[in-house]
Amino acid sequence: MEVTKVECLDWYDGPITAVTRVMGEDAPFLAVLLAYDPDQRSRIYGLLRMTLEKERSLRQLEEQAAPTHSKRSWGEIQTTIHQVLAEHREDMCLVRCRTLREGPIHEWAWVAMDPHRGKVGCEVEDAVEPDRIRFWNDLFERARNPE
Predict the structure, then answer these.
(1) Can you give the residue ranges of every domain in the chain?
(2) What span, in angstroms and rounded, lies between the C-alpha atoms of 110 and 88?
(3) 31 vs 108: CA distance, rounded Å
(4) In terms of CB atoms within 10 Å, which end of the chain has fewer, N or C?
(5) What are the φ and ψ backbone dihedral angles of 115, each rounded to 5 degrees?
(6) SS3 81
(7) How far is residue 106's CA from residue 103's CA, in Å, rounded to a whole number?
(8) pTM
């Protein structure tokens, strides 16, 4: 799986939320930062398929918010993101990105969304919590290396 396009909606030392395109997929994906470990230079994102309608809505809201950094538009963007999260019924793709001296490493794993729905958010404050970092890294490892 290869991400071919990333359009950031929110940024804090890297993307927090973004609209992404994946090679070979017609549907756009919403990427949300799940865990950010600055010590390990590692991030885990959840990629969730979304409708073209939601993608258009997010793009329009982002265009409205960009020139003025409107809080109202940002609130509408967050509402749309939460709608995508609430409506998502498929598996979620976890992407772990690391920046190492040799260059970036991207690893993928698919997990069921429903058992983890309550832990999927889009706030950097949640993503940097040690328990959250440990949870998503452990889940990622279990998905990549099932027993």
Answers:
(1) 3-144
(2) 14
(3) 13
(4) C
(5) -65, -15
(6) helix
(7) 10
(8) 0.85
